[in-house]
Amino acid sequence: MNKMTNETIHSLFLKTAEKCRDNIAFNYFDQTWKEVSYAKFSSDSKAIASYLIKTGTGKGDRIAIISENRPEWCISYMGIMLSGAVAVPIDSQLYPDSIRNFLADSDTKIIFCSSKTEENIEEALKSKSPHPPFTKGGQGGIMQISFDSPEFKEILNFKQTEKFPDTYAEDIASIIYTSGTTGVSKGVMLTHRNFLSDAEAVIKADVISVSDSCFPYSRCTTRIRSCAHFLCL
C-alpha cells in the first residue's frame, strides 16, 4: 500500500501547508475576488481544532456543517479533521425535517452554520419527528456556531494546542448522506484512506495540479477534488 493512503487528510494537508505557506489554497468571491493562502488556511484550521478540543470534543464525535459555499466551510472541515472528530456535511438547501433526521442519525454534537442557514436549523431542532427532542447548547444539547458570529471570529484567534489527537488512515473522516432519490437517505461512513485513495487517483490522472487554485463547493465529489488540490505538491 502506498504512502499517501497510509496517512490522514489533515496530516498530509499540514505537510503541504508547511511547504507551500505562501501559495494560494483557494479563491472565493465576497464582493470582490479574494484569496486564502495555505498558511492562513492552516492557522485557522488549527485554531478551530484547538477550540473544539478545549471545549470537550472527543475523538470520533460528530460535527455537522450546514452552510452555503464559503471559505469557512473548508476551514471548519479541516479543523474537524484535526480535532479527531468526524465531519458531517449536510446540504444547506434541505428542508428542516431532513436536517433533523440527519442530525439525529449521526448523533451530532456541534453544528457549524451561517446566518443563511440558521433559521432552517432552528426549525429542524424544534420540529416534530420520531426522534427525541433536541436542546440547543448546554448539557446534552447541540452547540451551534455561526460563521457570521463574533464568537467564530474569536475562535479563529484561539490559542493553538501543542498536540492534536492521534488519528489513523482507517479512522472515520466523514459521514456523507446519500440523496435519497431511490429510498431513505443513508449515512455513508468514509475513512481518511477512502478520501486519499480517490484524491490520489485524481492527482495521478492530472485532473488537478500544483498550479491550480480551487473554488470551494460543498458537494461530495468536489470535496474529493478539493482534497486532492490541497494535497498537491
Notes on the protein architecture:
With 233 residues, this protein is of the alpha/beta class. The chain has a domain at 8-16 and 37-172: ANL, N-terminal domain (Rossmann fold, 3-Layer(aba) Sandwich), CATH 3.40.50. The protein contains eight helices and eight strands. It has helices at 9-19, 38-54, 71-83, 96-106, 118-126, 150-155, 192-204, 220-231, and strands spanning 24-30, 32-37, 62-66, 86-89, 108-113, 143-146, 172-177, 187-191. The strands form three sheets. Strands 4-3-5-6 form a four-stranded parallel sheet, with helices on both faces. Strands 1-2 form a two-stranded antiparallel sheet. β1 (24-30) and β2 form a beta hairpin. It is globular, with a radius of gyration of 17 Å. The two termini are 20 Å apart. The relative contact order is 0.18.
Topology:
Elements: H1 9-19, E1 24-30, E2 32-37, H2 38-54, E3 62-66, H3 71-83, E4 86-89, H4 96-106, E5 108-113, H5 118-126, E6 143-146, H6 150-155, E7 172-177, E8 187-191, H7 192-204, H8 220-231
Parallel strand pairs: 3-4, 3-5, 5-6
Antiparallel strand pairs: 1-2, 7-8
